[in-house]
From TrEMBL:
Residues 3-60 form the HTH lysR-type domain. This is LysR substrate-binding domain-containing protein. It comes from Pantoea leporis. Keywords: DNA-binding, Transcription, Transcription regulation. The keyword DNA-binding applies. InterPro entries: LysR-type_TF_proteobact-type, LysR_HTH_N, LysR_subst-bd, WH-like_DNA-bd_sf, WH_DNA-bd_sf. Belongs to the LysR transcriptional regulatory family.
Length: 299
């Protein structure tokens, strides 16, 4: 059987106060409870730590040796508890955040400087994956998921939602023409996803009354790669507003089929495991991110 902290605390308290009765008062326990803790401790160690008489307690040689170690153990535990308490008050430690490349570049990265200034003791680690990862396998604290959630083992906080549009560069449209209707897309270069086929469903109606599912002329695994291809005049692309906002404002990308486009917004969640208690660094990051998204209209 392993020694418990309760037994160590009882033993040290008896030594420090000089009696079982005084130790019991200090620990807010009964004298019989403290006495039993000492008996269990000696039983586990298979040695006598002190000689008890009606008048005094005397440590054995083994008791003297063990006392120093017991004090060190209790001091380490107290120090650890104090550090954890401090971390609750002052967020600190490594925080691993995973998101796809577009969200990382266009939403998180612009906010990093302010976040680090506000929480200088948090060591932020940003990892990008354009496919859904296993949080435990990748040792991830928070993952940003775009679209409907499928994993019921995860807890989630809504960060917002982002509209999606069909876009192309002015150079592409000048060369290949502006599509006048959905059917005209069949004569255009369509940029789509190679791995996440759900993102190849575009927010425009077909004649059958369903959203258009495209077969990409050119595909990539990353939304950021597709954005760069669209900027390079390689075709028409479906992008979320948080990815394309600056391109649309500058005119580098323009919307096509605007009147045919149906309102469709992708929910954006921050997810973490259900059995994970929220540390202060996770809580402050989620609060900060949502605050800045709403304040700056990032989605």
């Amino acid at each position: 059987m392993k020694i418990t902290l309760e037994e160590l605390r009882a033993w040290v308290a008896v030594v420090d106060t000089g009696s079982i009765t005084s130790a019991a008062e200090q620990l807010d326990q009964t004298s019989s409870g403290v006495s039993r803790a000492l008996s269990r401790l000696e039983g586990k160690l298979q040695t006598t730590l002190m000689h008890r008489t009606t008048r005094r307690l005397a440590l054995t040689e083994e008791g003297l040796i063990f006392l120093d170690h017991a004090r060190q153990i209790l001091a380490s535990v107290e120090q650890a508890e104090e550090l954890i308490a401090q971390r609750r008050d002052i967020p600190s430690g490594r925080l691993r955040v995973n998101a796809n490349t577009p969200f990382t570049l266009h939403v998180i990265v612009p906010l990093v400087a302010e976040f680090r200034q506000r929480y200088p003791l948090i060591q932020l680690e940003l990892n990008t994956d354009d496919i859904v990862i296993d949080l435990l396998e990748q040792q991830t604290d928070i993952a940003i998921r775009i679209g409907e959630l499928r994993d019921s083992t995860l807890r989630a906080r809504v960060l917002g939602s982002s509209a999606i549009r069909l876009l192309a560069s002015p150079d592409y449209l000048e060369k290949f023409g502006v599509p006048e209707n959905v059917d005209a897309l069949a004569n255009h270069q369509l940029l789509g996803f190679s791995q996440l086929d759900v993102h190849n469903v575009w927010p425009v109606w077909q004649r059958e009354g369903e959203f258009l599912r495209i077969k990409p002329t050119l595909s990539a695994s990353s939304g950021e790669t597709l954005r760069q291809l669209a900027l390079a005049g390689q075709g028409i692309v479906r992008l979320s507003d948080f990815v394309s906002r600056e391109d649309r404002e500058s005119g580098r990308l323009v919307q096509v089929l605007a009147t045919e486009t149906r309102e469709q917004r992708l929910p954006i969640h921050a997810v973490y495991y259900r059995n994970q208690s929220l540390t202060s660094r996770i809580t402050c990051f989620l609060s900060f991110l949502r605050e800045k998204i709403q304040e700056n209209h990032l989605l």
